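job 3f2a | input accepted
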Amino acid sequence: MTRPFKPADPHATPLADGQPYRVERHVLAGIPCLLELPPECEAVQAVCLVYHGAWATKEGKLGVYAALATRGVAVLIPDAPLHGERQGDTPPGLNAREHVWESVRRSVAEAPALLDAAAALFGPLPAYVIGSSMGGYVSLTLARTEARIVRAAALITSGVWDEPEVRRPELRTFLEANRPNTHANDFPPIPLLLASGDSDPAFALDLHHLPTAATLSAAYEWAGQPDLFHELVFAGVGHYTSQGMRDAVLVFLTPEQMVQS
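job 3f2a | predicted structure (261 res):
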């Protein structure tokens, strides 16, 4: 026999590299989120937004960047608009690519309120962003447009944004206003990591990573800050965040670097 589950029942403390952290669920600015937090006795030093890919949910990112929580960072993972607990908000008539870009557009629009809610919880702190695939579009956009973001990582994604299937006027306007390869000069001086797999079937290396990296590298070179742009390609990696990619992000977002940013 088993007894009924009760939310207040004790449960195992999650660990990352043998170090404890906490997992909490919050609704911040109306957005369902999972938070990975330092232990109760440790102060939060920074906030890191983590955006998942298309057709995924916040739960899929649990544990991926939990090591940050053991180093004083609040990892905040929202359900993207039209995904997870928010699927019911999907407007009718969107094709698949429009569904992706409507989610991106809404994620970018609501990010300031999400950061405000995080500041209400933890105080005014440095903010960072990690995004993969669709989330990489969000990360690249927030790196340009949200002044509180001071370090950004964009994984298995693209700055090309050639989207012939996207026809809705508000989405076309968003694409033109935020396409990274068109607005690359807006990125410096934010430290930026662009990482891809060389076997990604969704974002072929020569069509997406290479032109994006070349454009961004030139922008940082022109700004006199080439050391602030980092690009990595992982051999044999497809359309997923590999362990090596994750580890590269953790190095890029070490607490020592964060405090100095």
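job 3f2a | Helices lie at 66-69, 96-122, 134-145, 169-178, 209-222, 243-252, 255-260.
job 3f2a | closed
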